[in-house]
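User: For my dataset I need records formatted as: sequence, then structure tokens, nothing else. Please produce one.
Assistant:
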Amino acid sequence: MLRKFKISIDGKAYLVEMEEVGGSPVAVQTPIVTQTAVPSVAEAEVAVSPADVSGEAMTSPMPGTIIKILVNVGDEVKENQPLMILEAMKMENQVVATKNGKVAGIHTLLGSVVNAGDELITIA
């Protein structure tokens, strides 16, 4: 059975297909590697650059992919309101507001791969 894995090497994302090997001997096949284009925040336009925003940015709690952005710059948010959906290890995790306020900046893009500690959003 072929299984697909998404790996990142030196900031480039790759989709790798591998055959799962059981207890019996199986002929080894060379994995098929295809490169997928993943825009980085530095290469693409962001809503507001971090230098333009006052306040402390919320950071990603774990590595993953941003699959939904639920707010826009200027939106009023309440504490514990979902702001983004982060997919990590095939699970969807909500990134929620840590306080009441206004979205001052969004520092990532839909589909971006983020690491733990990367800036995601600023609430002023």
